[in-house]
Fold:
Amino acid sequence: MNRGTRAIDLGLASCHTCGRVSPAAAGHCPRCHSAIHLRKPASLSRTWAFLLAATALYLPAMTLPIMDVQGLGGTGPSTILSGVITFWEMKSYPVAIIIFLASVVIPIAKVGALVWLCLAASGRAAGAPKHHAKLYHLTELVGRWSMVDVFVVAILATLVQLGALMTITPGPAALSFAGVVVLTMFSAMSFDPRLLWDREFGGSRAA
Structure:
């Protein structure tokens, strides 16, 4: 089947800064003078590195206290999961659900999706490139909400102070989880979805 001529076959590259298509041999975009490449350099290697670092930080993010709750209903530090249980028992169901989704479901799903995309780009996972591309864009979209739980804790610490009834202060896990979010964002930015189509056209440029 004739799949048509691609820009990479003609040695053309799109500038990551301004989007202009120029000959890759030039090395720099003639419009904004940014460096241009046919594919993001060492895309898969950098993506894997950020994923491994994010996974390493996720363990302390889940086990260390993310907030310290002092109140009539109980005192002491709370991890993410125990904090979810605390808010649920306090009948703060929306807060409990938001923190659970943003702290547990979204990070695990994002890491899993990026791992699958890396495997697909390197030819070790089956599936159509168009489906993988949709998964990548969905991962980017969902990743924008990964900091919701950190914002919730910050808002609770500054606004939801109930005097003698309750006091909430952030814990060390908040910093670890913020690191997880930032690293997964860098991982998604490092991944080049065009590598998925390179597999379809018979030439992998994954690195």
